[in-house]
Amino acid sequence: MRVLLAYSGGLDTSYLVAWLTRVKGAQVTTLAVDCGGWSAAERSELAERALALGAVEHRFADARAEMFQRVIRWLISANVRRGGVYPLSVGAERGLQAEILAREAQIFGFDTVAHGCTAAGNDQVRFEAALATIAPNLSVLAPVRDLAPSRDEQRAWLREQGLPVPPAGGKYSVNQGLWGVTIGGGELHTSSEPLPEEAWYWTRGASGSARITLEFERGVPVALNGARLDPVTLVEQLNLSAGALGVGRGYHLGDTVLGIKGRIAFEAPAAEVLIEAHRELEKLVLIEEQRFWKDHLGDIYGRRLHSGLFHDPFQRNLEAFFESTQEHVSGVVKLRLQPGSALVEGVESPFSMLKASDAKYGERASSRATPEGALGLARALAEPARLFRRAGEAGVLEVRP
User: Fold this and answer.
1) Which CATH architecture best describes the domain 180-348?
2) Which numeric CATH code is attached to 2-171?
3) Helix, strand, coil share (%) of the chain residues, nearest 5
4) What is the DSSP string of 220-284?
5) pLDDT per position as a tens digit, 309-365
């Protein structure tokens, strides 16, 4: 049996390489789909470990640019934060990774693919939904989900076999991507305990502050501190530089697709900076109804993406709407970064609605405005409440003995 395994190098997929080859006698080819977060050295280590665990071949797919164009740009456009906190980070990439797994399987003649998702998380739903949609004829193996070995059991079995265990012994379930790092397990099985400082990645030991500028064109970030960069490079640089200042660290306690509660820690420096900057720029160039409905639909978009509906056609409809709102979202945003915050200090745009008006908030009305007009507006807005109150008073008088 030839199996193409979606391989992250973590404990679950490391265990699977060895288990499929030694217990099932499969010929396993590992596929690392890079949606960001790995250094060149880490990519090399992934390949070495996969072969040491028994893989007959290791493949690598650089999906960072595709990840930005097909996923992250919409998360920015829609200012997506699940629960008002979590920018979806690595959960948003699973549908794309499953698609690339299926694509590679079809190109190289694999009838069977495998993933290392557990039975108690969202990723199994995301992988299975994507594969069922785009490659229903592929056979899909998920032994970690179906047999449910504990993380302690996986570590012990690998050591018994004399095989390498992932760095840090797999105490935490760590996922890295272009849009952030998520950390699960350990203290995060509770609702009250924080991670120890050494468990963090990009924000560990953060200190200091800095001022930066970001430039957007039609909602897409194109320059950092005046230097034009492709989006992937810009995001990667922000993850390191803003992460070193402690930006983007957080905890998310929320509802899983399965209906149970789950808690993770996350580090999303670039997401925090870009969403904050983009949101404030939109306030300058969009009308209130555009922002209200876009953010409302953005919440729906993020919830559906979180639930594994990456390939659902309604997502494309929402993306078309988001794109239509970004025509004027161009300009420069000034931010101050420091541990725990990304503060927007100023915004400029050639499409500024503030500059388009000769009014001065709190001091001078628009030259086209009249006191009578403002008074009429106030009375029209108040009329429903006035009538409601009047009717209530009349009703009280009517029923009073």
Assistant:
1) Alpha-Beta Complex (3.90)
2) 3.40.50.620
3) 45, 20, 30
4) EEEEETTEE--HHHHHHHHHHHHHTTTTTEEEEEEE-TTS-EEEEEEE-HHHHHHHHHHHHHHHH
5) 999 999 999 999 999 999 999 999 999 999 999 999 999 999 999 999 876 776 777
